[in-house]
């Protein structure tokens, strides 16, 4: 077989195995690994809200979700909070091609409930999905996402797949804009 035909065969094989949308090789939702890396299914979080009622990340399937790890005592978190609020206000009513909408699921690494609740009010974190187990860095949710510094966040698609991590400032808005309908 001459070099020309070898190149054509090689190119054909590469094209077949690398172009997106090849249904023969597509993973089903059930086959996607659970983990904290981009491309993984986000681990579920079940955590108590400010009223000591359990909230579940898994209840948000179908939405674009920002999981936001923060704490009232974290100065960089508090500095980033106005940006997160702006993103929430800008995108909570926007339409998305493959999602019902946009939600924020906040996980606090606080240990004092009063400080946590006061910071939510002071920073005008107006969404209703705030959770904490009040164990600080021992938080089960933070451990399952390997959070070692805050602020830290994970952006999930409508299937609960992590599509971006640690978006700050304009980068968060840019990623959400890419997902929103024009």
Question: Helices, strands, pairings?
Answer:
Layout lengths: L2 H16 L27 E3 L5 E3 L7 E7 L4 H17 L10 E7 L4 H10 L7 E2 L8 H5 L7 E5 L5 E4 L4 H10 L3
Parallel strand pairs: 3-4, 4-5
Antiparallel strand pairs: 1-2, 3-6, 6-7
Helix pairs in contact: 2-5
CATH superfamily: Glutaredoxin
Strand order of the largest sheet: 5-4-3-6-7
Terminal CA distance? 51 Å
Major beta sheet, specifics?
5 strands, mixed
Tell the overall outline. Answer: globular
Are there runs of 5+ residues with pLDDT below 50, and where? 7-26
The secondary-structure element order is: HEEEHEHEHEEH
- Helical residue percent band: 25-40%
Give the name of the CATH architecture: 3-Layer(aba) Sandwich
Return the CATH topology.
Answer: Glutaredoxin
Q: Based on helices, strands and strand pairing, what is the structural class?
A: alpha/beta
Strand content: 15-25%
Number of strands: 7
The number of distinct structural domains comes to 1
| CATH C-level name | Alpha Beta
Number of helices: 5
